[in-house]
Amino acid sequence: MRIAIIGGTFDPIHNGHLAVGRSVATTFKVDQVHFVPAFTPPHKEPRGITSPFHRFAMVVLATMPIAHFRASTIEVDALEKRYTVQTLELMRQKYPGADLIFVAGTDMYEDIDSWREFRRLFELATFAIVNRPGFRFREDIFPAYSLKPNESIDLSTNNSVFYLPFVEQPISSTEIRADIGNTKQWLPAQVWNYIEKNELYTKGRH
Fold first, then answer.
1. Alpha carbon distance 172, 44 (integer Å)
2. Exposure check for the chain: N or C terminus, fewer CB within 10 A?
3. Strand pairing partners for 7?
4. Computed from CA positions of residues 117, 37, 184, 3, in that sequence, does the dihedral angle turn out positive or negative?
């Protein structure tokens, strides 16, 4: 089995996340794409972040219509801050023998050497790095291979990091929260309905 893992705050999950999931699934021919909302993101100030309950619910709504997408509780079930290295180790235990592909944007990858046990991450999973405008791809972290569109992937090679410059996430959840009324086209309809129903991203409501 081949599993792609997309972690994040998902506050909220949006069509950019789903498009990345589809592209990575096609490029790496994965069986499942697991979206993993964090309980408390290790690299973010927790104040002002929407509750894990709402963020997980939105991930479920967004991923449910897509057969090979999954909403994972592996971090929210911890009820505490969990680091990526811990999540990947748990995924290894849960899916022994599976090829794990961890998906990150160039914005996240730019600071990966500040993550807990960051060198261990490359032993636990193959990395697929997608483009975020305004953030460079760091080639000094780990030996990497830059993919071309429609190029076949051989995970048996020594490359643990693949850069997908043709896969781009052009908007962030921060931008959506800041202007929810004018960015709702970036949200799956069921997620937008949930946001409206629960009055999320309006002043004083999280």
1. 15
2. N
3. 36
4. positive
Domain that holds residue 8: 2-197
Residues 66, 4: Cα–Cα separation, whole Å: 14
Cβ atoms of residues 85 and 119 within 8 Å: no
What pTM was estimated for this model as a whole?
Answer: 0.92
Residue-wise pLDDT tens digits, 178-206:
999 899 999 999 999 999 999 999 864 44
Distance (Å, whole) CA 14 – CA 26 = 19
Domain count within the chain: 1
With respect to residue 206, please indicate whether it lies within any of the assigned structural domains: no
For residue 83, the domain's CATH number is 3.40.50.620
CA 45 to chain centre: 18
Classify residue 203: in a domain, yes or no: no
Question: Phi/psi class of residue 190: alpha, beta or left (left: φ > 0; alpha: ψ in -120 to 50)?
Answer: alpha
* Helices 189-197 + 52-63 axis angle, to 10: 150
Residue 205 within any structural domain of the chain: no
